Amino acid sequence: MATNVRELRPKSGDLEKVTVNLGYVDLGHIDLMVHEGFYSNRTDFIRTAIRNQLERHSDVVKQSVARNTLDLGLRHYTRADLEAIRASQQTLALHVLGLLSIASDVSPELARATISSITVLGALHASAEVKAALADRIR
To answer: Which sequence ranges are marked TM in the entry (predicted)?
Structure first.
């Protein structure tokens, strides 16, 4: 099987919706590029522009990730992970660039007992109860 196969479109669960307000002239330029066939649609243009900017500044991002000791990408904590942390009588200071996910079966009490602080540049997926329990610890 080929090893150079990559996913062209992320699954819908891998996406976060962002709303952007654009001026009419900028939007017209995007529509022109789509009409001329350079991009399949507005979203394709905007994603490509964002990826190009991220690539352009990748060295700065890498330095910042190292300096701030951020976990890069997806970080998921299960109930078992947090129970092991509690058993070791330790707490977590979580710093994530990407997606921090806390399993749906984690209770607010377990989350408060094991997570001392959360810094997320990206998205935090957790139950509303866990988010409320950690609200004073989220930066």
So the answer is: none
Q: Which domain holds residue 45?
A: 20-56
Tell me, yes or no, whether 84 and 121 share the same domain.
yes
Euclidean distance between CA atoms 42 and 34, whole angstroms: 7
If we measure between CA atoms, which residue out of 83, 82, 81, 61 comes closest to residue 72? 61
Give me the residue label for tokens 């017209």: 28
Is residue 1 very low, low, confident or very high in pLDDT (cuts 50, 70, 90)?
Answer: very low
What pTM, to 2 d.p., does this model score? Answer: 0.61
Local structure of 16: helix, strand or coil: coil
Q: What single string gives the DSSP state of each residue in 60-71? A: HHHHHHHHTTPE
Residue 7: pLDDT over 70? no
The rounded percent of the chain whose pLDDT value lies above 90 is 73
Write the CB contacts of 18 (distance below 8 Å, at least 6 apart in sequence).
Answer: none
Looking at the 3D structure of the chain, how many domains does it have?
2
Cβ 116 vs Cβ 137: under 8 Å: yes
Q: How would you classify the pairing of strands 92-102 and 115-125?
A: parallel
Are 92 and 37 contained in the same domain? no
